[in-house]
Amino acid sequence: MNFNFKEIVTATMVLFAVIDILGSIPIIISLRKKVGHIQSEKAALVAIGIMVAFLFVGESILNLIGIDINSFAVAGAFVIFFLALEMILGIPLFRDDEPKTASVVPIAFPLIAGAGTMTSILSLRAEFHVENIIVAIVVNMAFVYLVLKSSKKIEKLLGPNGLEVIRKVFGVILLAIAVKLFAANINELMGR
């Protein structure tokens, strides 16, 4: 076992920035309004499962089906882009025929364990020991769970106007992340 506090802290901060659960609060609240209830435990556990599985077999799976990491990241950028447009313009783009829960799709995937997170995990794997990345994933998912669990309290605290402002601001930030993810990876794809 190669546990290293510095690696754990660095990986935790990288994943925290990419997952950006605080920025996703408006999306979580609007999804909760659509479906009525979000199973916080299920969302966090599914996201942990996806991320840990991707840590071990992600690159192999992508190679097996002939998709490189850059293509995967560009596809993820489109998903993030449309979520951002939904937040900014108030136009519902994500539709599901009477969804019973939003815990797995779109919260666990692609909101928490999306293309940005997966790409970051593969990048971290090249630099850090696997056990440190797993600890970083678990720490982040504990925080995600707390945010999901207290989304009603956060909604009451902010009020409808506060939520709307935060929704628009984070929509623009999410849009910028999508553009950055797209630009960074499309250059790699076009350079071939």
Strand-helix topology:
Elements: H1 5-19, H2 25-35, H3 40-64, H4 69-89, H5 103-112, H6 115-127, H7 130-149, H8 151-190
Protein name: UPF0056 membrane protein
InterPro entries: Multi_antbiot-R_MarC
Pfam families: MarC (PF01914)
> Which of globular, elongated, flat, extended, rod-shaped describes the shape?
globular
Largest sheet: none
Taken together, the total number of domains comes to: 1
Distance between the termini: 39 Å
Weakly predicted, low-confidence segments? none
So what's the oligomer here? single chain
Number of helices: 8
Pairing-aware structural class of the strands and helices? Answer: mainly alpha
Instruction: Please give the radius of gyration in angstroms.
Output: 17 Å
Helix and strand run: HHHHHHHH
In total, how many beta strands?
A: 0
The helicity comes to over 70%
